[in-house]
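User: Here's a structure from my thesis project, written as structure tokens. My advisor, Dr. K., wants to see whether a designed sequence matches the one we expressed. Can you design one independently, without my sequence as a hint?
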């Protein structure tokens, strides 16, 4: 695990074609463990801990644009001019911001279990309540409340080890970073108008049982992004890469291979 001078920690594996994977909320780089292993034979996989998560600094400002600029600073530090940027959920929101602010740095885009729209009033109210829970009782109290919307019923019933790993990952995140991310997501811009501007190869992945960012949202992104590819992962919920890692690795590796050998 490397902690760069500006405070963004990251892990990487493999060589060559750079792929940067941005985790969701409230996770860290270990969300991508199966992808780090599964894709390293095809490319150089880099998974950062976003500001306020994992081993990265937990200092404000916490905004989606700040997260985006942190990732660009990491690319600069690593000497990466252009990369495939993949983001899951909150990581997808960050990828949209990166596109608006730094589109020349993209070789491709992977949107995993995410959506373009901003929060509605109900979502904003829910996030405000979650901030109260985190500040009053800690992240370990919030984490179990997020499981049902994070993974499918199939995963919860058949793979308790995945749920245990997820709970451990979420519970260890710094309270300040978690509260900051909730505020950042509440205030984020609507990226729907951004979709039609995306002109790099784009892969959209969604769990068939995702209740947080459902298939309908993925289809809308697919329709709006010219030439994009949509892959629906059966038996998976919001964390398709964690629940069905082999299936997600397969569609990612095929997408990356097309870019490498184009």
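Assistant: Designed independently from the structure alone:
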């Amino acid at each position: 695990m490397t902690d760069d001078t500006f405070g963004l920690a990251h892990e990487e594996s493999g060589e060559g074609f750079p792929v940067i994977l941005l985790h969701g909320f409230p996770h860290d780089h270990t969300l991508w463990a199966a992808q780090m292993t599964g894709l390293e034979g095809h490319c150089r996989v880099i998974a950062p801990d976003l500001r306020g998560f994992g081993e990265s600094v937990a200092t404000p400002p916490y905004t989606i644009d700040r997260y985006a600029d942190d990732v660009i600073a990491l690319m600069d530090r690593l000497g990466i001019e252009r990369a495939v940027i993949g983001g899951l959920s909150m990581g997808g929101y960050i990828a949209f911001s990166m596109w608006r602010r730094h589109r020349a740095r993209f070789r491709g885009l992977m949107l995993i279990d995410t959506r373009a729209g901003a929060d509605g009033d109900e979502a904003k109210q829910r996030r405000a309540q979650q901030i109260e829970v985190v500040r009053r009782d800690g992240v370990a109290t919030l984490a179990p409340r997020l499981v049902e919307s994070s993974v499918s019923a199939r995963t919860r019933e058949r793979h308790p080890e995945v749920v245990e790993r997820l709970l451990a990952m979420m519970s260890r995140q710094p309270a300040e970073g978690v509260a900051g991310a909730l505020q950042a997501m509440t205030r984020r811009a609507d990226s729907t108008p951004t979709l039609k501007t995306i002109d790099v190869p784009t892969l959209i992945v969604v769990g068939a049982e995702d209740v947080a960012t459902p298939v309908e949202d993925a289809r809308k992104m697919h329709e709006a992004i010219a030439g994009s590819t949509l892959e629906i992962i059966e038996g998976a919920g919001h964390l398709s890469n964690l629940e069905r890692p082999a299936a997600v690795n397969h569609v990612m590796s095929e997408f990356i291979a097309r870019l490498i050998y184009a």
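When you compare it with your expressed construct, this may help: Residues 222 and 228 are 6 Å apart (CA to CA).
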